[in-house]
Amino acid sequence: VRIDNGGGGAQSKVAEISGHSIITSKYLSKDIYATIKEVNHDKQIVILDKMNFIESYIHHRKSVRIAPDNSFNLVIEAENIKYSFKVINISMHYALVSLTKLPNTISINTKLKLFITFKVKAETNFKTYNIKTTGHIHDIFHFKNNIKMLIFFELDSVDKHHFENYIYTRGLEIVNELKVLINRKNKIENG
Fold first, then answer.
1. Averaged over 159-180, what is the pLDDT?
2. Would you say 132 and 113 are in contact if contact means Cβ atoms under 8 Å apart?
3. Can you tell me the mean pLDDT for 8-14?
4. What is the distance between the alpha carbons of residues 3 and 22, in angstroms, rounded to a whole number?
5. Neighbours of 111 (CB within 10 A)
């Protein structure tokens, strides 16, 4: 597949770092997930391998989903028991968490209390926000080595504003982190 590297080779470098690509077409009802076998930066070509149809991907989502920073913490409470899991990503209404064993008190549609904590840069320092809300387990995905749970929640207008600000700010940080990785890779490749 030939790619447009108009931004100084960024597209092919991002493809190489991610190790996969999603192909969409208005003529297909599903997207195609493919692993990247090889990247030729000079010819602007990516060779794909192991292609499979998938139901949907990120561009079908109504809101951005990002990996949170280390300040982000999510505690859920089900049946008066509190749990803390590794948060994989978040959006305005969902959190995807990873765990090794599913607690007996949790199943799809289990009602939850959520306690969300995060920090947002405010001029010269960071401000900590604590959100208490409710939600439920939207879906549970069983994998070979772990389990992932998709947690749905709603926010009031004040909490929504602060959470949107966190997601926006974190998105900018991720872009900057990616730029640093690409620059490091370029320095290593170019001596």
1. 88
2. yes
3. 63
4. 13
5. 11
Q: What is the mean pLDDT of residues 142-162?
A: 91
Measured distance CA(80)–CA(132) in Å, rounded:
15
Question: In 23-60, which positions are buried (b, 16+ CB within 10 angstroms) versus exposed (e)?
Answer: eeeeeeeebbbbebeebebeebebebeeeeeeeeeeee
> Per-residue pLDDT for 143 more than 70?
yes
Q: Phi/psi at 188 (nearest 5 deg)?
A: -65, -45
- The whole model's pTM is what? 0.66
* Average pLDDT along the chain: 84
Q: At what angle do helices 10-18 and 157-190 cross, to 10 degrees?
A: 100
